Amino acid sequence: MKKLLLFVPFLSLFVACSADTDTEELANYKTSYSPAREMLVSEFPSDGALNTSCVKKLSAAASLKTTNGPGTGTLTFTAQVTNSPSGNYKARVEIQQLSDCDDFNSTTGNAVAFTNDVIYSNIGTNAPQVTGVSPSATFACYKWRLVIEGVSNSGSVTCNSKTAWYDAPLF
Asked: Which of 97, 118, 150, 170: disulfide with 139, CB 3.0–4.6 Å?
């Protein structure tokens, strides 16, 4: 009987400790972030770009090449395309400054674009990339995405595909 009476207060201790509530910061995050809103921004850009997609699935990776030793590297952003569409394509990387390194949505200013104006064909096996971006040309805190544009023989843009935004690489 004594053990049973001690068990009730002991059980109430666990019940009281497990009743967590959202902090104000978490509640603000839940109301400000919307995957649907992020998808709309990616799908329907406000910069007047075409909304015709070039590829079915596009992702990207960043790497740092330090051929001349530490501190002298260049960033390379490489597209990863799952299908192999025909045609000619150009690639560019867009880098967007963040005002708060811990807040992925705290963008400030306009995105900066880097390209090397190389025309790629057979992008399923010949991965488009943007090379030679100096880390000093980027911001302290930023996010980036890769954009693939289809180009006609006359040089006009026929389609574009954009990756999701990625966090800045930690090099």
From this structure: 97
Q: Which element (helix H / strand E) includes 10?
A: helix 2-17
Length of the chain: 171
Tell me the per-residue pLDDT of 65-115, one tens digit each, with 9 for 90 and over.
887 776 678 899 999 988 777 889 999 999 999 999 899 999 999 999 999
Span 6-19, pLDDT tens digits: 555 555 544 444 44
Residues in CB range of 80: below 8 A, 6 or more apart: 58, 59, 60, 61, 127
Two structure tokens written together for 80: 């990863």
CA–CA dist 64, 138 (Å, integer): 13
The mean of the pLDDT values for the chain is: 75
Q: Cα–Cα distance between 139 and 29 in angstroms, integer?
A: 24
0.85 cut: is pTM over it? no
Contact yes or no for 160/52 (Cβ under 8 A): yes
Q: Which domains does the chain have, with CATH numbers?
A: 49-167 (2.60.40)
Q: How far is CA 55 from CA 134, 144, 165, in A?
A: 28, 19, 17
Secondary element (H or E) of residue 61: strand 58-65
Strands 88-97 and 120-121: antiparallel
Side chain identity at residue 105, one-letter code: N
